[in-house]
Amino acid sequence: MKKKYFVTGGSGFIGSALVKKLVSFGNFVRVMDNSSRGDVSRLATVLKDIEYVEGDIRNLVEVKKLCKGIDSVCHLAYINGTEFFYSRPHEVLEVGVKGIMNVLEGCIEHDVPELLLMSSSEVYQTPATIPTDESIPLLVPDPLKPRYSYGGGKIISELLAINYGRKYFERSLIIRPHNVYGGAMGYEHVLPQFITRMCELTDQFSEGVIKFPIQGDGNETRSFVYIDDFINGVQIVLDKGDNLGIYHIGTQDEVNIKEVARKVADCFARKIEIVPGKLQEGGTKRRCPNISKVTALGYCPEISLSEGLIKTTQWYRDDFQKKRGVKK
């Protein structure tokens, strides 16, 4: 059944991919973003098919107005990017807490029956169990460390979505993404930073083994999910998820950061020598989700890390050359 969706943060990396998916099924989609990290150009192929509003999630009047006539709010507006957890923690929390409260007030005022909250794997920080399922306790290890501004804001958002969901929504859904990647995801994440670093280093050193600096010793692990697989998972949760359901979407292919760096180097047909560095304070040593809950609904990621990195690397190499004014 076609619905009327309101997607906050809809010109962001994940938001724009979700908007395109919803439009592809013939749904009406209203989008709001303030373009602080989002970029309306990500929506170029569907802009004529959506209602796009430039606005800030912290503006209650605007958010309430945009909730009118909507069947489902997908709340993605947030300040993402690891660098910002450290440099703008107060703003991360402001957007997180004011944002979810404004969305809830708008939904209540206009009787919106459904809410989907995009949360984060950062709610666990350092989980006790790997692979991590959705029942593992959420944690803010130290409120004095700025990194936890992000995870703390997401925990607050989840608590609000669940407890308001009990009273005001027919369905309140929570998704915890685990390291979603792809082209145009920004430059504040490990994969685009590795790719950009390789672009710079291959320019400097046209042959031989490249010394490649990283944070930490490279034994830290993640499991990455390509954007297309992730959005397919989101659509499955929208179609089949239970009220107050919390779902991991990712893969269970855990890989250490040294291997990730080598896979990026493979995309350049170069060999590298890892140069360990200091790990950022509060960084998680291991992260890998248990995805059995969402796979039971029919989710099945299909794109391997190697395959996804080829596509992602090509996008960032092209963008790197474009910024340098180099024609293909």
Average pLDDT confidence is 95
Output the radius of gyration: 20 Å
Total E-strand runs: 13
Low-pLDDT sequence parts? none
What's the order of the H and E elements? EHEEHEHHEHEEHEEEHEEHEHH
* Morphology call: globular
Secondary structural class:
alpha/beta
Q: State the end-to-end distance.
A: 45 Å
What percent of residues are in strands? 15-25%
Quickly count the helices: 10
Bin the helical content: 25-40%
The major beta sheet can be summarized as:
7 strands, parallel
Main-sheet strand order equals: 3-2-1-4-5-6-11
How would you characterize the overall build of this protein?
Strand 5, helix 5 and strand 6 form a beta-alpha-beta unit. The chain is globular and about 65 Å long. The termini are far apart. It has ten helices and 13 strands. The strands form four sheets. It has a seven-stranded parallel beta sheet with strand order 3-2-1-4-5-6-11, with helices on both faces. By secondary structure, the protein is α/β, with parallel strands linked by helices. Helix 1 packs across helix 7, helix 4 runs parallel beside helix 5 and helix 6 crosses helix 10. The protein is 40% helix and 16% strand.
